[in-house]
Amino acid sequence: MDFITLLYTSDLHGSNLAFRKLLNAALTYKVHAVIIGGDITGKAMVPIIRRGDSVYEGYLFGVKEVAHSLAELEALKDRISNVGFYPLVVEPDEARALEADSARREEAFLQLMLERIAQWVELAEQHLRPRGIQFYMMPGNDDVYDVDSVIASSDYVRNPDGRRFWLDDDHEIVGVGAANMTPWACPRDLEEEELQERLEQVMQLLAHPSRAVCVFHCPPYNSQLDLAPELDRDLRIVAHGGQVLLKPVGSKAVREIIERYQPLLALHGHIHESPGFRKIGRTLCVNPGSEYAEGILRAALINLERDRVKGYMPIYA
């Protein structure tokens, strides 16, 4: 094969619409492999309370939504799922019980997250596996460790976090889903020293680092792929002269590993506001960005020859 085509995205955060668009893009462009580089779970559960026969109400982005039939209920559930949230239909007493019991609420939230990932695995198996398209899905720093077992239950979908796989005879893929510490202390946030150790471990798995594809959820520090709004002590966005101030928040460990090993391709995410393609030495670094809450797929299509990136382009759908 002269080249292989990769379809890469990250930070879908539970958006059903963005995920379906990803599957469609994979089929349209006839890619060799699909790669999701982290942060696959959503951020909120949305209770939909049954108020009477075929009358349901809930709040989406602070706006009251009312469904007056089962068909309208399904449409409401789809709207909630498409922006990455998890609808949960409950009776009024169930809603009160969830509100009063944080442990019960967290358990319900976790179950919905795992169910969505299982649905995505099933969809990938149904639509991509028969066409011989490889599928890689890696959790990111926002994702709880419970999702790993859901991915591992599939003999088709592969999780490259801490592992090495072969994309073809020439190119290996490895991944690290963790990120350097954030103000929110996410499940897979690490201090730079520990992140450096994780990165070093996966690089040691490679037979040919110079031809490798490295899926590192966190972008390299000061790469223009890691610019995020500056926050004050109260986690409020800092602005000056009416302009939001941006600062690099990527990982210095990720940058050092890329500079030293110079893999062919480094795939990132994590910072939604900084999409782009940048070179660090010979390594092409990619952050597709994310607009999951709008149901928009941001992705990158990348062609790889044996020893070079043949071409690449952003996808916005």
Q: Rg from C-alpha positions?
A: 20 Å
Mean pLDDT: 96
* Largest pleated sheet: 6 strands, mixed
Please indicate the count of domains: 2
Approximately how much beta-strand content do the residues carry? Answer: 25-35%
Summarize the structure.
With 317 residues, the chain is an alpha/beta fold. The chain is built from 7 helices and 21 strands.
Task: Give a verbal description of the structure.
It is a single chain. The radius of gyration is 20 Å and the shape is globular. The protein folds into two domains: 4-44 and 109-316, Metallo-dependent phosphatases (Purple Acid Phosphatase, chain A, domain 2); 45-100, no CATH class. It has helices at residues 16-28, 70-82, 92-100, 102-127, 146-152, 192-203, 252-261, and strands at 4-9, 33-36, 45-52, 55-60, 63-67, 86-90, 134-137, 164-166, 172-176, 179-180, 189-190, 213-216, 227-229, 239-240, 243-244, 246-248, 265-267, 276-280, 283-287, 298-304, 309-316. The strands form six sheets. It has a six-stranded mixed β-sheet, covered by helices on one side. Strands 7-2-1-20-21 form a five-stranded mixed β-sheet, covered by helices on one side. A four-stranded mixed β-sheet has the order 5-4-3-6. The relative contact order is 0.16. The chain is of the alpha/beta class and 317 residues long. β4 and β5 (63-67) form a beta hairpin.
